[in-house]
Request: fold
Amino acid sequence: MSNWQEFLISRGAQRSSGGDITVDTHPDPDSEAPVLSVLSHQRLLQVSGPDTFKFLQGQLTCDVSDLHQGRSHLGAHCNNKGRMIADFRTAAGAEDACGLRLHSSALAPLQQSLARYIVFSKAQLQADTDTCIVGLSGAGAQSLLADNFAAVPDSAGRVCQADGVTVIKLDSARFECWIDAGAATEVLATLLSRSQLAGSGYWDLLDIRAGIGQVRGSSVEMFIPQLLNYQLIDGISFTKGCYTGQEVVARMQYRGKLKRHMYRLRAADPASAAPGDEIYGGSTSQSVGNVVMCANSDESSAELLAVCTIEAASENQVYLDRQRQQSLELLALPYAIQ
Reply:
């Protein structure tokens, strides 16, 4: 166990049977006070070497050419049929290095897929299990970071790096921090002096409310990027050129017509759905889509993102079960589905 994991346990976190650090507290998601979420369900895949960015440009849906200019993007790696093997957030590291932050259950599939293409490049892949990944949210998050770091990103999608800490601004009230293991205990102590500790489920709920879905192990190669609304959240570049699966993704954008989108919904029972679960409509016994991710919103309900047919969503008749006993309530997203 690393020093920073031991520190978090001393502050009330637990170590799961699988070795992850978990937190049982559930702060109010509408709270303005800073909340520090331990993202133990996320991992970093590090790509390094002289050909890193050339290699990634030919494999990812996002444009990596501006990462060294302090940018960060959502992106995905697809198979030849345009289906997402994994999605991630990117940030440049050293001159010839780039980190991809993704769900731990999709790490092995992504690494295996990229390994097939990287053999002819002067670059290498390495799973990073030491870096501490946390999220900081709340109206006071910006000032907390500004009071303790020399530089803090001032707009969404910007990155600042110093003293072993990478800070990425996601929106007006959310930041993601990748902290080198050697610096993590001190940084965590500083941040927790003015914030409440929370776990990965709290951050998942914030992602759901932001309309940002994520591929999990059970949904690898299930969705094309547009089904997760990636064209609406800057997860696809349509001008960068070719990448694996690009023909399918571009054809859907310019010549196809999506029959399904990702929607935000509420379930009456907490933790009542898992990624990949089928959902059903009101007029057919056939599945109309699949759950993307789910998180408890309070003790009696959960919120989820799910891909489903436009027809089922427009009728507001979506269910977790074929018998139509567990109805789902359609909720608003922060962007318009097109």
The mean pLDDT is 95. The first strand starts at residue 14 and ends at 15. The radius of gyration is 20 Å. The longest helix spans residues 107-118.
